[in-house]
From TrEMBL:
Transmembrane segments: 667-692, 704-724, 736-755, 775-796, 811-831
Taxonomic superkingdom: Eukaryota
Entry keyword set: Electron transport, Membrane, Signal, Transmembrane, Transmembrane helix, Transport
Annotated protein name in UniProt: Uncharacterized protein
Primary localization: membrane
Xref: SMART domains: B561 (SM00665), DM13 (SM00686), DoH (SM00664)
Signal peptide segment: 1-23
The DM13 domain, residue ranges: 36-142
Species of provenance: Hibiscus trionum (Flower of an hour)
Chain ranges of the DOMON domain: 165-311, 506-626
Keyword presence, DNA-binding: no
GO cellular component, one term: membrane
Segments forming domain Cytochrome b561: 634-831
Localization per record: Membrane
Amino acid sequence: MYNSKYSLLILLFLINSIVSSNADSGRKCSNTSSLVGFESDFKMVRHQLRGHLKILDDCSFHVTGFDMLSGSSDVVFWGAVSLNFSNITGGFPISDQRLNQSAYKNASFSVQLLPNISWDQINVLSIWDVVNISDFGHVTLHQNGSDSVPDSVRTVLDNCKNLSDHYRVRWSLNVEENWIEIGLEASTPATNYMAFGWANPNRTKDLMSGADVTVAGFTEEGKPFADDFFITAYSECKLNSKNSTAIGVCPDVVYENSKNGIMVNNTRLVYGHRRDGVSLIIFRKPLNSTDEEYDLPVHPTEEMRVIWALGLMKPPDEIRSYFLPRYHGGSEKVTHGHLVLNVSEKVDDCLGPLAADDNEVLDLIVASRDAPLVVTTGEALNYPNPPSPTKVLYINNTEAPVLRVERGVPVKFSLQAGHDVALYITSDSLGGNATLRNATETVYFGGPEAEGVVASPHELIWVPDRNTPDQVYYQSLYQQKMGWKVQVVDGDLSDMYNNSVLLDDQQVTFFWTLSEDSITIAARSVKKSGYLAIGFGSGMVNSYAYVGWTDDTGGHLNTYWIDGKHPSNLHSTNENLTHVRCKSENGIITLEFERPLTPSCNDSGKPECKNIIDPTTPLKVIWAMGSKWTDKHLSERNMHTVTSQRPVPVLLIQGSSEAQQGLQPVLAVHGFMMFLAWGILLPGGILAARYLKHIKGDGWFRIHIYLQYSGLAITLLGLLFAVAELQGFYVSSLHVKFGITAIIFACVQPMNAYLRPEKPAHGEDASSKRLMWEYFHVITGRGAIVVGIAALFTGIKHLGERYGAENVHELGWALVIWFLVAASIVIYLEYHGRQQRGRLRGSSNWVLGNVEEEDSVDLLRPNQALTQKGSDSSGVMEVQLEPLNR
Ligand SMILES: *[C@@H]1O[C@H](CO)[C@@H](O)[C@H](O)[C@H]1NC(C)=O
Ligand SMILES: *[C@@H]1O[C@H](CO)[C@@H](O)[C@H](O)[C@H]1NC(C)=O
Ligand SMILES: *[C@@H]1O[C@H](CO)[C@@H](O)[C@H](O)[C@H]1NC(C)=O
Ligand SMILES: *[C@@H]1O[C@H](CO)[C@@H](O)[C@H](O)[C@H]1NC(C)=O
Ligand SMILES: *[C@@H]1O[C@H](CO)[C@@H](O)[C@H](O)[C@H]1NC(C)=O
Ligand SMILES: *[C@@H]1O[C@H](CO)[C@@H](O)[C@H](O)[C@H]1NC(C)=O
Ligand SMILES: *[C@@H]1O[C@H](CO)[C@@H](O)[C@H](O)[C@H]1NC(C)=O
Ligand SMILES: *[C@@H]1O[C@H](CO)[C@@H](O)[C@H](O)[C@H]1NC(C)=O
Ligand SMILES: *[C@@H]1O[C@H](CO)[C@@H](O)[C@H](O)[C@H]1NC(C)=O
């Protein structure tokens, strides 16, 4: 008992506090203002705002039937002196109530004025979006007559009925004056007609035939129209040119041609607008028309069948000067329908605003590469985000259109808007130099110098780049709200990036733009896939991978260091990527990112810190694609299904890939020269020294010298070629290491030949110095050849790895065969020499390290060799370099 009383008390207290907080009963209000009791509907400007205002007393007002689509988070009741742009933008909030609900549907509430605000400060009461400086709707309070022209437009009629989810009919009836005012409201494209009318009461099916309808819509210029139609057949309007009769869905005037002087066009347009993608057209028609043939009488108190439709219009052409409806198609209740209506019954089943598209673009200008955009100013007639100054920007004679530009495609402005309008492209939606409003903005283009007049247009080119946001604004630097939106869409990747190459198999295109210390990279596959990965490295293993994929939450890009073939070898890295994007268009994945060339860390424990891009060396790029990726729980399923077969070395500075150019000619020359030197001349010279000693005089020696020197010269030339082509000298690869060693050995030879000690006199034993030298010369010489040959082979291998030249294998085998043939000749010569010696001495004299010229046997002229052998029997160490002594 006590409990229930107690809770009742609490309940009463709660109710009281709720009521009092709403009505703010704490403040006593007088009723002195002449505006107390004033009532008016709001004039809709945007956001499908409808409602009725009543001023209650000196400090509050009441709003009923309030509909509004949500605006920004800062929509307020706003007071202003007048409706003109500077006065209304210079207005002030009149209450601390925020209208930030998602959507208002037939709401009613009381609003308290701020304590320091009184009605005499307010001539215009607006619902105002502070963020976008946007008037959603207003009431003019006719206080001092400055805005004395009443808004005759009513967007609310007495009744409203939903025809479908996107189509409503509103009407007001005046039986005494014999008219009905009908408002057709639909969220439908501007190119669609809205049709509504009465069916012939004698019909129960095929309701269209004999029906009297009104067709309403907007012309291309955005002007509303409403025409009186009569349906004679279930078809589009057809004219018979022989007897000039019409059949189908035709305007009344087409049937009659007003030949009897009867007015057949009896529908009068009252008002029309298109806001937020919703068309509203109000027209008036007589209930009882004087035209009995093509109009049906509307009985105000009877139930009558009405029909309606939405569909595409056929614009006027040379033959017909009317908009004609096309067959609506579609299904019942969506594009067409019928119902029974008694127009004198009160109906209002329209709750809240129609689902509308706030971002509907009425005027769109698409910039193209070569067409200049002529920027002028003109009168504000239909500015998309009212209010606006009286003068606004026109582009190509369109008032404040949405401008669509493509990233990477230059936009040419021809500025003719006058010296007082400086165009700029800004992140700020209002323009007029946001700094002056204490706001921040990013200026993408233009500025004080971007102005010109018709007599001398100023041409400027703006290139939106890949980092330009999707939406920016073109505005004047000196006046707010003269321009409107710029939609920045992705252009062709090839427009947005300076360079591109096709990766292996031509399945993935790699795009990049190099800047001083960063690089922007994009990759796109030609095939559909669930993810796309590119990697820097020679293979999947030991590569830095960038994986882009999309899912329900959008596009993602992750970076990894891969050090094995198993999913567990995939290590997520933390690279400092910026401007990351990944999107999938029809299953084709494009990923984009920007990264510093050198990571800003030097923590050796983190692999990503070693992921340095050096633009001067070719960047090896590989790719992989697969069906599904996730940033958690990677498994075998995430492993690639298609990959590149080989890395493509990308020359970042030159803007090409090496493979695309094939084997570079200079490197080919390098290879050939080195083969000539190390495969023919230098070994030839050594063989000459060993096997041609029999040639009379110093012939063998000359051959030896010529071959070695020319070999050395060609080697040095070949080295220069390689260094010049690669624009630098990198001692990183095995090939270079072998090559350098071989060249050093080879260069030592002429020097030590110069320093060689005296040849021993005939018959004398060689001095130990001489002996040492001989050993040294021979060993370095042969060592050089061995290392040089190794350099040839590693060179070919390198060629294969780095340039992916296809014929590398054949080249390698050819080289192997060449040296095998050479080796077998040497073996043959040695064997033959051994036999000769054996015959001569009866025993082999093969001592390791003691195999010098002593063993040389001239197979071609064995006699001389024999004589020489005879005379040189003194020592096996004899080295015949005597010509040098001369
Ligand atoms: C603002 O309104 C007042 C009164 O209606 C008017 O005198 C004044 O010119 C307006 N201001 C501007 C900048 O137009
Ligand atoms: C409907 O039928 C009646 C009787 O046949 C006729 O008088 C009337 O004119 C018809 N109405 C129309 C609109 O055709
Ligand atoms: C006009 O011609 C069409 C076909 O040629 C015919 O069906 C129709 O009855 C004619 N109308 C008149 C009024 O002669
Ligand atoms: C009907 O009359 C209105 C206003 O008088 C006019 O705008 C419209 O073009 C006319 N329609 C036809 C089909 O002639
Ligand atoms: C309208 O039609 C009814 C009959 O349908 C007739 O009685 C009435 O007089 C008509 N009114 C006008 C204004 O034509
Ligand atoms: C804008 O107008 C200029 C001059 O009339 C024309 O050359 C250009 O093609 C137009 N640009 C676009 C995008 O229509
Ligand atoms: C905006 O005005 C400030 C202060 O006058 C000036 O420093 C700034 O350069 C202006 N901004 C632009 C884009 O001209
Ligand atoms: C901008 O901020 C300064 C200092 O805070 C202030 O004096 C000035 O009135 C502000 N201007 C505007 C337009 O709000
Ligand atoms: C990324 O930037 C942060 C802060 O500048 C730095 O600490 C980190 O080492 C950077 N990481 C890489 C991979 O560059």
